[in-house]
Amino acid sequence: MSETNQQQRKRRRKENTTGIAKILDSEADEKQVKTKGLNEILTSLVLLEEQEKDDHDELEKANQEEKLRFDEHHNKKTRAMVEYYSKLQDFHKDAEIAEGTRKRKAKANTFAAVNIASMAIGAVKQDDSVSNDKNDAVSDKATAGPQRRLWVKNRSKDWWDQCNSPDFPDDEFKKAFRMGKNTFELICNELSSVVSKENTMLRDAVPVRQRVAVCIWRLATGEPLRLVSKKFGLGISTCHKLVLEVCSAIRNVLMPKYLRWPDEDTLGKIKDEFESMSGIPNVVGSMYTTHIPIIAPKISVSAYFNRRHTERNQKTSYSITVQGVVDPRGVFTDVCIGYPGSMPDDQVLEKSTLFQRANAGFYNGVWIIGGSGYPLMDWVLVPYTQQHLTWTQHAFNEKIGEVERVAKDSFARLKGRWGCLQKRTEVKLQDLPVVLGACCVLHNICELNNEDLDPELKFELFDDEMVPEIGLRSGNAMKARDAIAHNLLHHNHAGTSFVS
Hints:
hydrolase activity, 3 domains, nuclease activity, 5 strands, HARBI1-like, alpha/beta, disordered C terminus, five-stranded mixed β-sheet, hydrolase, nuclease, 17 helices, about 500 residues, single chain
């Protein structure tokens, strides 16, 4: 019995031991599972961290590549503009050299012709020395009219002779030349010493009045040279040469006198006139940029392509720009001529001498007012362009618009008065800045002499303004504009038309 009990105890002990072992094994397995799960979680976290790091590295790499592409594109554009400018300068130099060579050849040919004529006269004298009477007759015939008629083609000058007559009506003269006789006489007197030529043995020189008239009529009407030739009884090439010579004389002689930045006393009067007009103090000018159509150039065609005019007119358009600052009378005080038509207004401004003088502190404490195509700077005051304007901002835009219209109306009169600016011209690209500068000077002379523009010549401008990419260039200018807008409304200087 005792042995049986002892065996039973051994069996139970063995079973208990086996149970405990199973429990221990189960706990070990469970611990192993938990450990394995924890390891998997840690591994997942490490993998996620590595994945996030890889994504961050790829993003940094993409950003770096994009920055490199942007810098490369910017450098490419900069090189292209520098190369274009260099080619343009070289082109102008080559044109000047070619023109000088042509003049020298023409002069040499003239001298050769004179020598030949002199030799012929001498031979005639020697052959006819037997008879003094015959000798005198041959000499007179050789040195007078017939020699000139060999070089000059007879053309009718009836139209010009009629215009040049003292009895010709002043209103008809003004209709033809966009200015009265007195103003025309003033220009002729100013240019006489520069454009006058002496008679030669071969031909008579074109008189000063006729030279100036050819140029002004060509600029005023924009008619082709063949019609200019018929009107004035001159050759086509002669008319072309006269136009360029007189335009160059206007630029060299009249521009320093009639198109210049005002002195201090005049600036004070300009500020007062603009302030009485708009209520905005310290305004010294109104600025605007227009486009002049041109024939597609042979070089840098894309630079002169005018996309906005092309889209509006449904016709491929190329142009160059003319930026101008005017006083309250619409007289130009600064112009920048000749940059390609693809450039927006703010880039043209940055390239101008006006901008360089501003950076040198020349316009500290004063404003030049421009449209929405210009950026707001310490010296350039422009309207608000954001949506949902306040009453104060609306009122400011209304008053600043009155000053803007002074420049826009002046450019409209410029193009209306000089018809050559309204259509593509025969003038070569390198000569256009001289011609356009002459038009601006002649515009100033007409404005200063109160030459009213015929209402039939009224011209409507179509120059789209593009808001610049960086419209705000100065925080101080923004605060100053807000203060001006507040003062306009507070002191009842602002209008109320924006309410209706």
